[in-house]
Amino acid sequence: MDYQKLRERMVEEQIRSRGITDARVIDALRKVKRHAFIPEALINSAYEDHPVPIGEGQTISQPYIVALMSESLRLTGNEKVLEVGTGSGYQAAVLAELAKEVYSIERIASLQTRAESLLAELGYRTVHLKSGDGTLGWPQEAPFERIIITAAAAKVPPALIEQLAEGGLLIAPIGEDRLSQILTLIEKKGATLISTPVCGCVFVPLIGKHGLKDQ
C-alpha cells in the first residue's frame, strides 16, 4: 500500500479543503506516518476521515481534528507544549514537528508504553512521556506555552490553568454532555481567561481527579 500517496490525498481532501492553511501544520500532517500509530488490524483505515480505535476504549482522532487543534495553537517552533492524553502518540508526533518540546501524559500505562516505544523508534527525541493523571498536569516541567487536552472535560482542570504560561494558549473539548462538546481555545492573560469556541466535536471523557467522570 502506498501510504505516502494516501497521506497526500488525506491532506488535500480532508485538511486543506476544510480550511487548514498553516503551512507548517500541513507539512506535519504530510510527514507523520499516521499508519504507524494504527493497530495492525485497522491499518487500512489509517488515512480515512474518522477516528480509529486503538484499544483500551481510546481512539486516534480524525485527521482534520488533529490538524485543527494543532493550527489553533499557533505554534512557531519555539514552544514547550503539554499534551494531556497521549493515546497512540500521533498527536504528539505532529506537535513534535511544530514545537520545541512536547510533554505528554497518558493515564493508561499500556498505551503510554506503546506510544513511547513507537515515538522513539520513529526518531522523535523531543517528546517526553509519562503515565499518570493528566488532570494534574506536569508541574515539574511547568510552565507551558501551549496545552492541548485530547479528552472531554466539563471545564479545564485548575492545575492546567496554573501551568499555562502567561499569554499561553490551551485547546480542549469542553462540555458536560459525553456525546457532544465544543472545541474551545483559551488564552491566558493575567487573571483573565479568554475563551473562543472553535467547533463542535466528540471526544472520549477526560478521566482523573478533575476529569469529566468526577464533575
Task: Please describe the topology of this protein.
Elements: H1 3-15, H2 23-31, E1 52-55, E2 58-60, H3 63-72, E3 80-84, H4 90-98, E4 101-106, H5 109-121, E5 127-131, E6 144-149, H6 158-163, E7 164-174, E8 181-189, E9 192-201
Parallel strand pairs: 3-4, 3-6, 4-5, 6-7
Antiparallel strand pairs: 1-2, 7-8, 8-9
Helicity, as a percent range: 25-40%
Gyration radius (Cα, Å) is 16 Å
Order of helices and strands: HHEEHEHEHEEHEEE
Top-tier CATH class of one domain: Alpha Beta
Main sheet record: 7 strands, mixed
Question: What structural class results from the helix and strand content?
Answer: alpha/beta
Order of strands across the biggest sheet?
5-4-3-6-7-8-9
Ranges where pLDDT stays below 50 over 5 or more residues in a row are none
Features:
two-stranded antiparallel sheet, Rossmann fold, 9 strands, 215 residues, globular, single chain, alpha/beta, 7-stranded mixed beta sheet
What does this 3D model show about the protein?
This protein is an alpha/beta fold and about 220 residues long. The chain has a domain at about 65-215: Rossmann fold, CATH 3.40.50.150. The mean pLDDT is about 95. It contains six helices and nine strands; from the N terminus they run H-H-E-E-H-E-H-E-H-E-E-H-E-E-E. The strands form two sheets. Strands 5-4-3-6-7-8-9 form a seven-stranded mixed sheet. Helix 5 (about 110-120) links the parallel strand 4 (about 100-105) and strand 5 (about 125-130). It has helices at about 5-15, 25-30, 65-70, 90-100, 110-120, 160-165, and strands at about 50-55, 60, 80-85, 100-105, 125-130, 145-150, 165-175, 180-190, 190-200.
